[in-house]
Design brief:
Blueprint: E1 24-28, E2 31-34, H1 35-46, E3 54-57, H2 62-74, E4 79-81, H3 87-91, E5 101-105, E6 117-119, E7 138-143, E8 153-157, H4 158-176, E9 185-188, H5 195-206, E10 211-213, H6 220-229, E11 234-238, H7 240-248, E12 258-261, H8 268-278, E13 281-288, E14 292-298, E15 305-307, E16 311-317, E17 323-329, E18 332-337, E19 340-346, E20 349-355, E21 359-362, E22 365-368, H9 369-377, E23 384-388, E24 401-405, H10 411-419, E25 430-433, H11 447-458
Parallel strand pairs: 1-10, 3-5, 4-7, 5-6, 9-10, 9-11, 11-12, 12-13, 24-25
Antiparallel strand pairs: 1-2, 7-8, 13-14, 14-15, 15-20, 16-17, 17-18, 19-20, 21-22, 23-24
Helix pairs in contact: 1-2, 4-5, 7-8
Amino acid sequence: MSARPALHGAAGDPADAFDDAARTLAWRDGEAITLAQCLAEAAAFAERLPPHGQPVNLCRDRYLFTLALLAAMQRGQTSLMPPNAMPHTLRQLEAVATSPLYALIDDPVQDTAGLPSLVVQRPATRDALAWRPQPQQWVARLLTSGSTGEPQPQLKRWDALRRSIRAEAASLSALLGWPTIAGLHLVATVPPQHSYGLESSVLLALLGGASFDAGRPFYPADIADALARLPRPRALVTTPVHLKALLGSGVALPPVDLVLSATAPLSPQLAQQAEACVGGRLIEIYGCTEAGQVAARRTTDGDVWTTLEGLRIEAQRTNADAERFVVSGGHVLEPTPLADRLQLLDAQHFRLLGRANDLINVAGKRNSLAHLNFHLNRIDGVRDGVFWLPDDVPEAVVRLVAFVVAPSLGARQIVAALRTRVEGAFLPRRVIHVEALPRDATGKITAQALREFALRTLAPDRRSR
């Protein structure tokens, strides 16, 4: 698809999208909400916020999340966004808080682990407001997902976010063959508290001229319904795990002009299946919470990533003479190391080789757990799967374990399929069938969650089928 569908209320240059207050920003319960309405409602709600403190934005409704975010900004407060709303996560936030915490919620019965809370609601009355964020204003304090260790806070400034979204909009437009993405309507399955969900739904609407659906559909039928409710051009903002489940469900999907995926590399086969199913283009975003968005690619065009406007990547040697890759320029305020191993083609193009800290050594051979997981999930019949390396045994006797959601396949079939894809040293000693893996709302599995899941699952000495 290269022709751009007709626009509905499109804005102009994405750089000026925040100025066009009359455009549609969000869709909620069938209502089109303009940017002007949202700013006015945020100003009215801001009057209810405490004069001091740090809000923890836990709203699931994407519009109420946005309203709360803008209200906090108007109060000069930086919103804290945890990777999940589990009570044990919320209890750990005191360690990264810079002022007294309070929770902003859209569910009155939500457990906030003892944090004082305020329910976010659309105010009944509001006055028009000509307000703009300050370029140097700190907007959000995001926490990393914890997939490679303990979650770490990352501060985001308005001017950097603005440059990031402008670069994303330019990249998407180029890969789609469109002059602009203004007027694109977004349905997102990822939470707005995650950096990808924040950037590619909420901020892509605020700053890129798009608009978003307020919901966060999970089940395939709900995703299809949410897409069908929006006019074209429309986009699905999702993850490989969510996309695989959606395409495997058999639910009929309306035409979708763009499928945007992130949080893990997507296989070419799944990308081809997605494009054939919805008729649009699938584009992947590569990035991390620390640096934000870094690169993009149309997966069916090849495995090479292109950095967003203004960004450069270089290889550096550390004190241990190990190689690391650092991104700088553009919206990245200071040079930031990436957690992945890359094959640099030049400063703007690379191939992704896997996590820098997930290399394993078995029988003198090295491999990446991400690489093994990639091949495990490419097997027909494997709905979901992950390798786990026990960390409490000597290296000489390391034995990989694979946990799979694959009701139609036996362990021998899975190992046989893996044998054609990976070296024999990395075949799992055990294949454990489970009903589901402990993925979070973005489809990731934290290192701690996987370890606890593995130990709990293996405790009764369950046998593979």
